[in-house]
Amino acid sequence: MMFYFPKKDLTKNSEPIVFIHGTGMDHSVWTLPVRYFLRKSRDVLAIDLPGHGKSPGKPISSITGFSDKIFKLLNDNSINSFSIVGHSMGSLIALEMASSQPKRVKAMSLIGTAFPMQVNKHLLEYAKSDVQKAIDILTFMGYSNQARIGRNKNPGIWMTESTRRLMQRSKKGVIYNDLLACSNFQDGLEKAKKVSAKVQLILGSNDFLTPRIKASDLIDNFKSPDVKEISNSGHTLMTEDPNKVLDYLIEVL
User: Fold this and answer.
1) Distances in whole angstroms, Cα of residue 239 to Cα of each of 35, 194, 209, 215, 221
2) In the chain, at which residue ranges do the beta strands (DSSP E only) sit?
3) Which phi and psi (to 5°) does residue 18 adopt?
4) What is the mean pLDDT of residues 2-11?
5) What integer is the mean pLDDT of 218-226?
6) Percent over 70 (pLDDT), the chain
7) Which domain holds residue 163?
8) Is 199 helix (H, G, I), strand (E, B) or coil?
9) How far apart (Å, rounded) are the C-alpha atoms in residues 18 and 39?
10) In what order do the strands lie in the sheet with 198-204?
11) Helix, strand, or coil here: 62?
12) Per the CB 3.0–4.6 Å rule, which of 27, 131, 161, 219 could disulfide with 46?
């Protein structure tokens, strides 16, 4: 597993922020918040999950499997306490981690999340047999209607195409296994009850992949979660509304 943080002498007292990306992506989706927190002298650990980005390793098809890998990474670096930020699939990994070892997690932000995060069987089949079609669907459904035709505040950047290109760099089998892991994740509501960390959810009002209503039961099972909703944003909130996402992350981290 590849990981990125500002200094090599992280210790058990570092208490870094761990950023976990979603399906078919890598650590680069966190560029803005990572740079911000580094400037504030916070320790940051932005991960390429196995098989993603520059990380070697075979695809993993369970959320628990991803969680175990990250805990091994933290343990190998003597990190006992940390905060977590997870997007989409990464939010389920964060939930698994915060529920299985709650005393280690100080704060958690779940972005574009839902439970259950079931994946349409046709999309799963495309991911297995025609990955480009699956990428096209994920890219289209991952953005609000406005974002599909523009609306980027950063001139010259095509949001949907940049996400498509990022997913196209995924290694063989990665997207299928990511989607399978999301679809098979169970007991999310019971796990939410075990979380003792400060909990924040950042949701998009125009999210077609994980609609706000699909997070309602999850919200009800956390202890006093702080729920933020970004108007007109789709599922890929860090790209559509990066500044608002960062503002909200600052509040909880």
Assistant:
1) 15, 31, 15, 21, 28
2) 2-4, 17-20, 44-48, 82-87, 105-111, 198-204, 226-230
3) -100, 120
4) 61
5) 97
6) 92
7) 2-252
8) strand
9) 16
10) 2-4, 44-48, 17-20, 82-87, 105-111, 198-204, 226-230
11) coil
12) 27
* Structure confidence by residue, pLDDT tens digits, 163-190: 999 999 999 999 999 999 999 999 999 9
What is the spatial distance between Cα 239 and Cα 32, in angstroms, rounded to a whole number?
10
- Kindly report whether the peptide bond that precedes residue 59 is cis, defined as omega within 30 degrees of 0: no
Identify the residue whose tokens are 């574009």: 112
pLDDT, residue 54, reads: 87
Place of tokens 């994946």: 119
| CATH number (domain holding residue 66) | 3.40.50.1820
What is the total count of domains within the chain?
1
The string of pLDDT tens digits covering residues 112-146 is 999 999 999 999 999 999 999 999 999 999 999 88
**8 Å CB contact between 181 and 85:** no
Encoded tokens for 246: 């960062």
Q: Which of 28, 17, 6, 51 is CA-nearest to residue 252?
A: 17
What global pTM score does this model have?
Answer: 0.95
